[in-house]
Write a structure and sequence with these properties.
This protein is α/β, with parallel strands linked by helices. It is built from 20 helices and 21 strands. The strands form 5 sheets. Strands 6-7-8-4-9-10 form a 6-stranded mixed sheet, with helices on both faces.
Length: 603
């Protein structure tokens, strides 16, 4: 017999912006939600459907316009929000100890130690990843009966995600999770709440069965609409049917991806050599776009990238994966020519023309319209040589064409990401560099991004912690374990993990424990006597300043990620934007200055 729920909403309805976000009385009863004491629920819905709002209603933070909320006495509900506010706290521990029901400090320290986060860190200078770990430590230490998780893996590296998955697998209470991380959802959930067009559906299958269920629902709706000859209803569902068709097309693309991986596997030398076979000069001219030969990078006494060679061919999709601090950005910058390697060389095809899509997507001018951003105020956009009407192009990126004249500042973070993807993918290029492209995107947009990457004619470099996205997208994975070694594997994240497990079975070889964060970099070597006094001071002090700038940049990006910031305080938005630009400029100058001094020391 099923256990009684610990929390339920019956007939839930909420008005927003003059209309009903969900539970419209004109369309029937409100939402009915029942959460059992051992439920592991995936909360699914498109950006803007009201998922986060629904979590706030469950916690009681906001009041509904209709419906009855029931909660079992003594139930402890804890909410891990997506972007908690650290502004009024001096340290991460101050944040964790705030509130009337704060957990005990020793409980927080215990979990923080497992997550590898120093809770004495100043909140104002902490990175997004540090803040996320601190928020997780606080939430888990509160001993919840019901845990509400809003995008818990954002800003976490793979080691932290693995740790959180293991903790939740042992958790004896209930949780509801919003996440775009398919692997995370598949591994942990046993039921699905689907918030769709103002209605709530529940099915007692984990996220692994969600997509088949979704397609079944849409197919039945299409049949009913056809029987009723309701053309308008069919038109209202074009987006949903488009998503279903997109997934079916992507299954065909996945088959092509397996073929591409098999071809690349044939070019990779036996495991342990970490090298792709290099071809002749004539072969380079015809096929290769980037060739790296015996490149490496060392900072002080720490070897970030050990010597390795790589040949990237036209059409390759290269995934770069590893824990924070493992050297992903350093490797990417060397491959794209932004950073000179200490040894070896990187050669680019003369016709290489790249587009970089990074985490600055939130910096789109909020005062501009979608038409301004995509078509410079006109009606037509040139999409890689093909002229398209801007409203038709918006449909391809899951937008209603009527938003063409809406201001960027009115869109959510995920919607802004989609607009930026639409703009960047329209540009003519043969190299696409994506830095954490899945942040803020819902599952439908991830399907779209997978499709667009598959159809892209050029070469793609992707840095991501999203394991499922990498498995669906890349042909070759560059795996960094924090020791300086770069594993080169034909396939995605799971293929890299399988190779590491095989190596671990060999008694003569050891691998780094993936469940632990990489060790901190060792102290820098003392400066050489060749430097002047000023140079020696710069050599000693610049690394600390670079770390401070990294934290400032992360904080600025996090602040601008608030979709309401511009409308609430446009002056603050502009002030943060300008400060962020200055910090990035100073960061570039500081890094170049330190590298120049390091070269002098090593001579």
């Amino acid at each position: 017999m099923a256990e009684p729920p610990i929390l339920s909403w019956e007939g839930l309805g909420l008005q927003q912006g003059g209309g009903w976000l969900f539970g419209d009385p004109a369309k029937g009863d409100g939402l009915d939600i029942h959460i059992g004491p051992r439920d592991r629920l995936a909360l699914i819905g498109r950006n803007g459907a009201g998922k986060t709002t629904l979590l706030k209603l469950i916690t009681g933070q906001i009041e509904a316009d209709r419906g009855l909320r029931k909660i079992k006495p003594g139930t402890n509900i804890v909410w891990l929000e997506q972007d908690p506010d650290f502004a009024s706290f001096d340290t991460l521990m101050d944040f964790a100890l705030s509130g009337a029901d704060a957990p005990a400090e020793h409980e927080i320290e215990s979990i923080a130690g497992q997550l590898g986060i120093d809770m004495s860190r100043e909140a104002a200078t902490a990175s997004g990843g540090e803040k996320r770990r601190a928020a997780i430590a606080r939430a888990l230490a509160m001993d919840p009966d019901l845990l509400l998780l809003d995008e818990p893996t954002n800003h976490l590296d793979l080691a932290a995600i693995d740790w959180l998955e293991a903790w939740l697998a042992r958790f004896r209470g209930a949780f509801v999770v919003i996440s775009h991380d398919r692997t995370f959802l598949k591994r942990l959930t046993n039921a699905t709440l689907w918030l769709d067009r103002g209605n709530m559906r529940r099915k007692d299958v984990g996220f692994g069965g969600y997509e088949a269920w979704e397609e079944q629902v849409y197919a039945e709706e299409a049949r009913n609409a056809h029987r009723l000859d309701a053309k308008l209803k069919i038109e209202a569902h074009w987006l949903e049917r488009g998503v279903t068709a997109r997934r079916k097309r992507n299954m065909g693309r996945l088959e092509k991806l397996w073929e591409m991986r098999a071809a690349r596997a044939a070019m990779i030398q036996p495991a342990g050599t970490a090298k792709l076979k290099l071809g002749s000069d004539s072969d380079f001219k015809s096929k290769s776009v980037i060739v790296a030969e015996d490149i490496s990078k060392t900072y002080g006494d720490r070897t970030v990238i050990k010597p390795f060679s790589l040949r990237i061919q036209r059409g390759d999709r290269i995934g770069v994966v590893g824990a924070n601090g493992a050297g992903k950005t350093t490797l990417l910058r060397m491959l794209t020519g932004e950073l000179e390697p200490d040894t070896g060389s990187v050669t680019h095809a003369r016709t290489l023309s790249g587009v970089m899509i990074d985490q600055q997507r939130k910096l789109l001018d909020p005062q501009k319209s979608v038409r301004d951003v995509l078509a410079e105020g006109g009606d037509w956009i040139d999409v890689r040589g093909v002229r398209k009407h801007v409203q038709g192009y918006l449909k391809e990126f899951l937008f209603d064409p009527s938003v063409v004249d809406a201001k960027i500042g009115t869109f959510s973070g995920g919607e802004r990401s989609r607009i930026l993807l639409a703009r960047e993918f329209s540009r003519t290029s043969n190299l696409l560099v994506l830095d954490e492209p899945t942040n803020d995107l819902d599952l439908e947009t991830l399907d779209l991004l997978q499709e667009v990457i598959a159809d892209y004619d050029g070469t793609v470099l992707i840095v991501s912690h999203d394991r499922d996205f990498l498995d669906r997208t890349v042909t070759v994975t560059l795996g960094l374990d924090g020791s300086g070694t770069v594993d080169i594997v034909a396939g995605g994240y799971e293929d890299w993990q399988a190779q590491r497990k095989e190596r671990a079975k060999a008694p003569a070889k050891k691998t780094t424990d993936t469940a632990a964060p990489p060790p901190p970099p060792p102290p820098l070597a003392p400066p050489s006597g060749k430097l002047s006094y000023k140079d020696q001071r710069d050599y000693e002090l610049l690394p600390k300043r670079i770390e401070e700038l990294e934290r400032l940049i992360a904080n600025g990006e996090a602040a601008l990620g608030d979709p309401e910031l511009y409308s609430r305080d446009p002056e603050k938005f502009e002030r943060i934007s300008k400060s962020l630009a200055l910090a990035r400029d100073e960061m570039d100058e500081a890094e170049m200055r330190w590298l120049e001094l390091a070269e002098q020391v090593e001579q």
